[in-house]
Amino acid sequence: MGSFLSGAMNENFKKQQEFMAINAQLQLERQIVMQNEMRERQMAMQIAGSREFLKYYGTFFSLAAIGLTAGALKGKKPALFIPLVPLGFVFAYQWDMGYGTLIRRMKGEAENIIGKESNLLALPNGLPSFEGIEKARKAQRKFPIDL
């Protein structure tokens, strides 16, 4: 009778372990999907913000270009064209960020860094460990509590 009970308990225990493993895998998959969706939403907000900034900056750049060109031609001062150079670079960058291929190029460079220069991504002193975090936590308290 004892072996019958222990056999049933072992079978039940194995089923419980399988259920917990499947549940942990599902939870991890859900977290990965959720984190990816949040990342995509953040990226979409950054691109949308860049496009919105481009509208305002494009208006400013256009007005500045017209004003500086008119002033340079009317006053015969070609030096007034000089501010258009840096303003043009900023405009081109913003356009590339909002509508161009800058994001794709940045992604490609990031993949290159991860693949070929991963040593640049290492944290100083390595990954934090539980023991190191606990040691720092206890050092910050006047009266350390061991749990």
UniProtKB/TrEMBL annotation:
One of its GO terms (biological process) is positive regulation of plasminogen activation. InterPro entries: Plg-R(KT). The chain crosses the membrane at residues 53-73, 79-97. GO terms for cellular component: plasma membrane. Keywords: Membrane, Transmembrane, Transmembrane helix. It comes from the Eukaryota. This is Plasminogen receptor with a C-terminal lysine. It comes from Leptobrachium leishanense (Leishan spiny toad). The lineage of its organism: Eukaryota, Metazoa, Chordata, Craniata, Vertebrata.
